[in-house]
Amino acid sequence: MAVKVKRGFKPCGSLPVHNTPQITDLMLRFLRLALFAAVPLMPLLLDAQPQTAAADSTRVRAQSTPAQADLRAEVERANQAMVTAFDRGDFLAVARFYTDDARIIGPGGQRISGRDAINAYWTSMSAGGGEGRAWKLEVLEVGGDAATPFQVGRSTLSSSGAGGRREMVSEFIGIWKRQPSGELKLYIDIWHPAASTGGGPRIRRAPEPSQSPRLPSAAERTIDAQTARQMVDTVAALVATTYVVPDTGRLIAEHLLRRARSGVYDRSLTYPQFAEAVSRDMKTVNGDQHLSLLYNLNAPSTAAGPRIVRREAPASSGSGGASGSPQIVRRMAGSASPADLEISRRSNFGFAGVQRLAGNVGYLELSLVSSRGGQAALDAAAAAMAFLSNTDAIILDVRRTPGGDPRMSDFLASYFFGPDSVQTLTSENRSMGFSDVRWTHSVPGERRPNVDVYVLTGPGTASGAEDFSFIFKQLKRGTLVGERTAGAGRMNSIVPVGNGFSASVSTGRTFDPRTGSDWERVGVKPDITVQVDQALPAAHIAALARLAGNAADSTRKQELAWIREMLEVQSSPINVAASTLNKYAGSYGSRIITLDEGRLYYQREAGRPRDLLVPLSESVFALGEGTVRIAFSSGSGPARELRVLTPSGASSAFSRGL
Do 265 and 132 reside in the same domain of the chain? Predict the structure, then answer.
């Protein structure tokens, strides 16, 4: 007699209410599976805060967390004990591995809650009978702490009979809860079959790109009301369970659900228009600019809900799995796929420019403060700092830097502190109950704890770039120049939620552990306020003034003063009449002065490149970096003489040729 696999049967699995500071692909899988089942449970999620708080307090009390390997071994033993009970047909014993208030959540929001319902669910399995029935549980990931460890796993239920061999394979996530007796029991069990085919649910592998169905374009089709409501429910569930401030997350979720009930999303909206409308409503409650719903026209799946994507591991991959066996694709924080790494490499990992400015002032422009690319990104940072190691002051430009991550922030900042570790900031994440106290650390190359540092900021300085600026501001290690930053002080996670949409949600915050302050919605205020496009010359001038004030050598002091004067003049140019400039054009010995489109140029001799002359007055001009000056004799007719002046007081005269 063939075994009848009951609809919704799935042994073991649950979703953690934790997260990491930088969400890994593992965490994305947790959220995808959870949201698939949790969407119909929004009232439960919005009312569950007291339980979450209690669980948090339990985690705080569990100071003696076992090593991760020991925790995994304990979870594996619990899995094996469940399988043993199942194999001997003692389904009530399987049910006893759940807490009295446990919940089993299946596809489409199917929910089984409480002791009696869970007992009935498991004991009903005996009605299926069947020969050769076997259950296998695989532990893929274990995390969390001793009080509430979580598990990601794979369940395979197989049986044989007259109808042949049947197999059910599913992914699950389980939250275990430590009991007063010390044993672990399942508190939440969320499962999700990857696909359903003729013989029962089986793992579905991602189709090749050429075979992937594509979502309709905005010009072809509007989003239907059912899909729109499902997306709103999914986003609301995500925000309610992972937003960095729990009460605010609930308010945002409730606001989205109210808007959906009012029918605002039932209008004829294209997919991008729907994403924009939901994004506006996500930001309404508290103005968090990290909150948004994103739409990708070329998303590879039209599935209504999130799903796990698996990839075939080649036989030579060294992954440890058999050729052709499904392998979960993981990328930990700070790593990247080969394609991502290539994109990062072409942008030089965010290091957009590094140069030496006049007066031996270093300049580093960052398009991202990001460790994306792993060691290659850190190597690029070390190379940039090596280039600047002989400069006398350093300007760090993050005016057009939209983000980054704490790893690179701390890495770069470490170059400007001594060898002793200095606490920078603290990053914490609500959904994982995670708090990361951050410090400076060892870096390759020379540290510059005493070099003057200037950080250029503006409205385009956001998120991870603000994190970087905030370190220098709070530790009083540098001078910020420009305008107030964007005020995006939350760490966000971008989670695919189905139908080509991904939700960006603030899951963490970063703050100064000494004051508790952060920059969310207020930005980081500069020490020297100037228009953002004037920040570089302003910082350069400030650096030169400080260097000149500290210079002991009179020639060096004069040199820096000359450079500073040239920069000041360039910010407010002196206009010299074309008729006067024309008097200076000509040859003075081997020196050649030319007038081109209202500007004077200097050539040391014919055949050499020419350099622009910057007017400091009607008859004196700065040459090059500003450390040499050219003075012309004045009079009613053409200039008769050109003099080359230097900061040391030396000069050379050259008479005009006939």
Answer: no
Residue with tokens 């060096």: 556
Give yes or no: residues 409 and 436 share one domain: yes
| Distance from C-alpha of 320 to C-alpha of 332, rounded to nearest angstrom | 18
pTM of the model: 0.64
The SS3 assignment for 451 reads coil
Domain boundary residue among 311, 329, 361? 311
Please answer whether residues 331 and 371 qualify as being in contact, where contact means their C-beta atoms are separated by less than 8 angstroms.
no
Which residue type occupies 543?
Answer: A
Q: What CATH number does residue 429 fall under? A: 3.90.226.10
Burial (Cβ within 10 Å: 0-12, 13-18, ≥19) of residue 263? exposed
Token duo for residue 439: 């410090």
Q: In whole angstroms, what is the distance from residue 300 CA to residue 279 CA?
A: 22
Backbone angles phi, psi at 83, to 5 degrees: -60, -45
3-state secondary structure 81-97: HHHHHHHCCCHHHHHCC
Whether 78 and 145 map to the same domain: the answer is yes
Decide which of 203, 225, 256 is a domain's last residue. 203
The dihedral built from the CA positions of residue 632, 634, 638 and 640, taken in this order, carries a sign that is: negative
Q: Write phi, then psi, for 184 (nearest 5 degrees).
A: -100, 140
Chain Cα centroid distance, residue 649? 54
pLDDT at 262 exceeding the cut of 90: yes
Same domain, 383 and 428: yes
Token pair listed for 612: 């622009």
Please say whether the beta carbons of 410 and 377 come within 8 A.
no
- Tens-place pLDDT, residues 200-235: 333 333 333 344 445 455 446 788 888 898 889 889
Question: Residue 110's pLDDT is what?
Answer: 66
Q: Is the pLDDT of residue 178 over 80?
A: yes
Query: What tokens does 431 get?
Result: 């959904």
What's the chain's Rg over C-alpha atoms?
33
Structural domain that includes position 103: 25-203
Nearest CA to 402 out of 352, 372, 368 is that of: 368
Count of domains in the chain? 4
3-class DSSP assignment, residue 473:
helix
Cβ burial of 324 (10 Å; 0-12, 13-18, 19+) is exposed
Q: 627: left (phi > 0), else alpha (psi -120 to 50), else beta?
A: alpha
